[in-house]
Amino acid sequence: MPEPILEISGVNKSFGPVHVLRDIDLAIYPGQVTALVGDNGAGKSTLVKCIAGIHSIDSGTVAFEGKPVILNDPRVAAALGIEFVYQDLALADNLDITQNMFLGREIRRFGFLADGQMERKARETLTSLSVRTVSSVRQSVASLSGGQRQTVAIAKAVLWNSKVVFLDEPTAALGVQQTRQVLELVRRLADQGLGVVLISHNMNDVMEVADRVAALYLGRIAAEVLTKDSSTTQIVELITAGRSGDIGLAPATANESI
Description:
Blueprint: E1 6-15, E2 18-28, E3 33-38, H1 44-52, E4 59-64, E5 67-69, H2 74-80, E6 82-85, H3 97-101, E7 108-109, E8 112-113, H4 115-128, H5 146-158, E9 164-168, H6 176-191, E10 195-199, H7 203-209, E11 212-217, E12 220-226, H8 232-241, E13 243-244, E14 247-248, H9 251-254
Helix pairs in contact: 5-6
């Protein structure tokens, strides 16, 4: 087993009297897809925002490539190589693919936009991910399908030598064929050595593409299991009850509420 590229230990986060995250331990490994699953209100979004530097943590530690880091600003996470693709994708419909991929990070030469260089880098990134569903990097994003938009958003995230990529519900509202394309892309990211975190409610997607699953229950990690050693039923029980057979939180802890 390689060393984790991102390791979270004993992280707690409260908003006033509400204790949202409780002693969270989570490790993300290079070359693997880790699925982060949990019911609504389990703490997934808060945990991701803490890693992104949007929320500060109250206690606990975060290590990146074995070194302690303080993620108190989204720019810090981006500088380390931690990227996020949120469910709304944050793409501008009036811009083309290249312009979206470099939005806010445009390459300039002598004060002018280096359009040719950006177009070449955008094309190289899509090619490296074996993306065949996009005919031209000068296509308007408004003309793209849902699956193509998701592909562009993921390519945008890995354009900057990313090492860890968080994907929030990447197949939501996609058809069967588009879902297949996105899941293949998620797998290719891991095969290229990135640490991928898949946040999803779709257990079929999780079981198909994830190497390990971390189940959140009421702000705690109920269990972290290898997908090959688990089942959909077991993971659903961890999500809904915090425990499945001998795996998960102690009965007394599982019965606690936030």
